[in-house]
Amino acid sequence: MNTQLQPTRNDILPPHVDHLSAILPDDPLLMMGAGPVPIPSAVARANSLVINHLGETMAKIITQVKDMARYVFQTRSNWVLGVAGPGSAAMEMAICNLVWPGTRVLSICNGFFSGRMAEMSRRAGADVVTMNEIFPHSMSLERLEALLDEHRPHCLTLVQGETSNTTFNNDVKNIARLAKARGCLVIVDAVCTLSTTPFEMDDWQVDAVITGGQKGLSSIPGVSLLAFSDAAWSRIRERPTPNTHWCLDALLAENFWHKASYHYTAPVSGVLALHEALRLVCEETLPVRFARHLRCSTALQDSIEAMGLSLFAPAESRLNSVVGINLPEGITNQAVCSTISSRYQVEISGSFGLPIVRIGQMGEQCRAHHLFRTVHALGSTMRDLGATVDLPSGMAELENSLQRSKAD
Ligand SMILES: *Cc1c(COP(=O)(O)O)cnc(C)c1O
């Protein structure tokens, strides 16, 4: 037997690839954009482990992840599931299980992500009607009622926080009430808002809620969570034809998430990371976490205005978990994002076509020391690019605002 290694074909040679340390910056960048966000060290440690995806340890982890997710979603529903994939995979899982050819969907659209829910519904074969209003506070509930009566949708989709243009829908409860009174299921994207601001799945009668790992929960990107109500689960059970998405089929996912058996190999490291992230939320408790987010986001907004910059969203529709800042004349978001990253090692986000930059206030981003560094970096960047800003006033206001809310 020839035990010698076969020579490789020498017309295709291995490429020279840099060691990671040659690619990554010496100082880690501070992740202050619209996600992913910094992760606590306990989450990073959990993410470095690989365990048996069907063993007893994993079964215990899954039980606890579901219990903690119920607290974070504020639901008693049994139907909590996870998915290997981004927030959009959870969104697609919610939609493709509840929507099939012929389903009527009403989509409240006020930006990129709410538009994505409408598009996913269309692709699943639904007859979709959209209600467009960029600033949720100016949305008319009477018009919504008229559309519900006219179109008689099986499902309504909406986003609690539109990360894309930094607007917030603070009327989810009333919107859901109108839909539910007509037997319409309510699907809510809480990807950037969950655990940053109140969300009450049961009290608000939400039938499907989705979230990602890399935003408010401060876990890694790529493992997401969703929950269905009993009414949603009945519709899933009664669907006329099997879901064409095999990986996203909720009834198959039930095998892993509720019966300790196999669907696909779960992203074990990411699930362990999510377990740690959820445990930290439970340890902090939701009311304390919401207060921390409000205090930090308010201080960030106050300091940006004190510096002489203005905010994109009107106060009535402003999202706290991602803050949109108007750009001074002649300055592009590409210039701001690349300068703040290369000179000050802070990452922030541009936007989908709007002349704004966005700074996140989700999970670990809401820490005073990160705010001081970020506000300083933003003001310095604006100055470097030729804008007139009053950076000392911005820094002073950051401190004052944090002190004011501490005294409350
Ligand atoms: C980030 C985000 C998503 C998409 O999440 P991905 O993980 O990028 O797929 C969807 N909706 C909202 C509101 C988001 O903020």
TrEMBL record:
<dbReference type="InterPro" id="IPR020578">
    <property type="entry name" value="Aminotrans_V_PyrdxlP_BS"/>
</dbReference>
<dbReference type="InterPro" id="IPR015424">
    <property type="entry name" value="PyrdxlP-dep_Trfase"/>
</dbReference>
<dbReference type="GO" id="GO:0008453">
    <property type="term" value="F:alanine-glyoxylate transaminase activity"/>
</dbReference>
<dbReference type="InterPro" id="IPR015422">
    <property type="entry name" value="PyrdxlP-dep_Trfase_small"/>
</dbReference>
<protein>
    <submittedName>
        <fullName>Aminotransferase class V-fold PLP-dependent enzyme</fullName>
    </submittedName>
</protein>
<feature type="modified residue" description="N6-(pyridoxal phosphate)lysine">
    <location>
        <position position="215"/>
    </location>
</feature>
<feature type="domain" description="Aminotransferase class V">
    <location>
        <begin position="51"/>
        <end position="350"/>
    </location>
</feature>
<dbReference type="InterPro" id="IPR000192">
    <property type="entry name" value="Aminotrans_V_dom"/>
</dbReference>
<keyword id="KW-0032">Aminotransferase</keyword>
<dbReference type="Pfam" id="PF00266">
    <property type="entry name" value="Aminotran_5"/>
</dbReference>
<comment type="similarity">
    <text>Belongs to the class-V pyridoxal-phosphate-dependent aminotransferase family.</text>
</comment>
<dbReference type="GO" id="GO:0019265">
    <property type="term" value="P:glycine biosynthetic process, by transamination of glyoxylate"/>
</dbReference>
<dbReference type="GO" id="GO:0004760">
    <property type="term" value="F:L-serine-pyruvate transaminase activity"/>
</dbReference>
<keyword id="KW-0808">Transferase</keyword>
<dbReference type="InterPro" id="IPR024169">
    <property type="entry name" value="SP_NH2Trfase/AEP_transaminase"/>
</dbReference>
<feature type="binding site">
    <location>
        <position position="358"/>
    </location>
    <ligand>
        <name>substrate</name>
    </ligand>
</feature>
<dbReference type="InterPro" id="IPR015421">
    <property type="entry name" value="PyrdxlP-dep_Trfase_major"/>
</dbReference>
<keyword id="KW-0663">Pyridoxal phosphate</keyword>
